[in-house]
Prior knowledge:
By secondary structure, the protein is an alpha/beta fold. Helices cover 47% and strands 22% of the residues. Strand 4 (52-58), helix 3 and strand 5 (74-78) form a beta-alpha-beta unit. Helix 6 runs parallel beside helix 10.
Amino acid sequence: MAEPDAGGAPGPGHLALDVADRNRDTWAIVRCFNEAPVAGDVVAELVRWFPNVVGVDDGSTDGSAAVLEGAGARVVRHAVNLGAGAALQTGIRFALLDPGARYFLCFDADGQHRVRDAAAMVERMRREELDVLIGSRFLGSSSGMPGLRRAVLRAGRLFERLSSGMALSDAHNGLRVFSRRFASQLDLQSCDMTYASELLRAVRSSGLPYGEHPVTIDYTRYSLSKGQRSVNSINIAVDLWVQRLFGRRSA
């Protein structure tokens, strides 16, 4: 891939160090569960743009922690697999220990995200008064997305609009950037993939400004085999409705 330029797009190689230096106020958080075949390449490219990367090894059994560290990430390990929400919260808490951290980038370890998109999102956070910026494959593009996955994601968009009150085009995109102000108050209680809905409710209840940014998601045979099955998305939605139902009854 070409080197980044000052605006996050590909450009002359000599500008790469300038971008990395500017991004020293940003921590990239990479959640990882048994992603050893690809996580090293993901982190190796990420650290060229963002020198501060924390890899959260969520109880992997395939040597992912060593791969993350070897590629240049600081590594925090969960003794057992706790889930995506718990891994994200752990990464945020670690990054908040750096008093100079202003932005917190959420980036997947499976190779679906593009670093140039992440860099552009951080640059936009610098320019605009936003505290949360969420990537959208529906405003951008998705390469190799199965039709069923597309349909489920669109249904999830409607569900999240009803659940959180946020009208987003892509409610479950894992590429996100938070300001320190928002990250400092985020306290995810959902350990598994239901955390995404809890996160959106936290954004809305915070009253802080948020936005969406067009990104490209690259669906590969590997990422599709490792990612959430479409039926799991339906199960998550059912679980959320059950939680909300019992929550109301117990209130």
